[in-house]
Amino acid sequence: MPSGQILLADDDAAIRTVLNQALSRAGYEVRSSSNAATLWRWVSQGEGDLVITDVMMPDENAFDLLPRIKKIRPELPIIVMSAQNTFMTAIKASERGAYEYLPKPFDLKELVAVVGRALSRPRSVPTGAHPAPENEDIPLVGRSQAMQEIYRALARLMPTDLTVMITGESGTGKELVAKALHDYGKRRQGPFVAVNMAAIPRELIESELFGHEKGAFTGATARSTGRFEQAEGGTLFLDEIGDMPMEAQTRLLRVLQQGEYTTVGGRVPIKTNVRIVAATNKDLRVLIQQGLFREDLYFRLNVVPLRLPPLRERVEDIPDLVRHFFVLVEKEGLGRKQLDVEAMDRLKRYRWPGNVRELENLVRRLAALYPQDTITGAIVDAELDSQPLLPPQPAGRSNQPNLQASEGLSDAVERHLNEYFSGFRDSLPPPGLYHRILREIEGPLIGAALAATRGNQIRAAELLGVNRNTLRKKVRDLDLMVVRSNRV
User: Fold this and answer.
1) Pick from 65, 479, 17, 132: nearest CA to 280
2) Are 81 and 102 within 8 A, CB to CB?
3) Response regulatory domain: from which residue to which, for each copy (predicted)?
4) How confident is the model over 248-268, as pLDDT tens digits?
5) Residue at a domain's end among 280, 309, 338
6) How far apart are CA 222 and CA 214, in angstroms?
7) Is 183:138 a contact under the CB 8 Å cutoff?
């Protein structure tokens, strides 16, 4: 049975009661308070084995209290809770010495598990924290559960030099996350150098990364420094790593293994001290199977995998993102804008194939082209290139289809289309309906076939009755993530 005294501080009596009950059932002694002053008195008197505190207390912000606690009791683990749920909340919690940050609401089982891990860890004095930059105007926006997981992972990675592999569809913000890792990490004083593998001619990638000596090849009239040398002491962001040719992959692997490299045409090894962050919108495991990516390099880069969710998986973040982008364009000199309820509903029902980048471009277009202070749903409809196959929903109604027990696929599609058309009342849906319907059906169908065959595209093509090359093209066009399992 676990043991230990928990000091709990939250000004919400209902939350204190729930947490007290959960922790008591788990075998812990709990002392709870509604203010920071009492918590500080307990800690300063040497009481408690662990602290759980909300950020916003009636008498003091917990972020101001944490450094004082860590100064007198550096070994005391502190768990921070917050309903603010922003990226900077997670970063500040980490920078001020918190053991863990939990965004409200959270699962009680998760809290108990975190408490158990914190109390069972070796008690050692943590290294000094690096203060976070005061500027909070960073482009990581959203309070969804998916983004909370990203924030917590980033907060844990800030004090480390671990290699990170960021995966996600185009437009999800992979470079923004890499920049945040640098700007709020231990290498913030060094340079951040980004290089896009897909934007460099294949024959020049090695020279671009490692530099070249004078006369190394035709046109090399002088020595040139590479991106590794430019990023010395900082972070090197390798975007679209899946497009790196095999020859450059071999040299990159050698750098990661030995910590040194030679310039193109050079002979003297050069020591390197950079943090590597890589990113891709491709499934590298598929490229490995196709012989296009080195498996040993994949494992060297994939030390900490970080998947960014597409916008359609975090639609609850759209209002915050829209407001954020409108603020940015207002600072650039354009007029202040806002969306009406219908316009926001249209954005939430759109599929966003271009993800956050597409949303930002739309917001900029709306701010620049329309004089109205309030943007309507009709304007948003006119600007979106394609519409989702989701009818407008009455208040309180879910977008999930209400399938009947005996209903066949044809009947379900017919009923769904009737609802879709009726949602436009006396008007018609935008043109291009035929291709939108096919795309809506193709994605789930191919995804289900790939899931059933555990990512085996040969078996999936056979199951669907299509040519394997046709399936691969569909997977690429529909931007489907393929996860391969060996248990086929």
Assistant:
1) 479
2) yes
3) 5-119
4) 899 999 999 999 998 988 888
5) 309
6) 4
7) yes
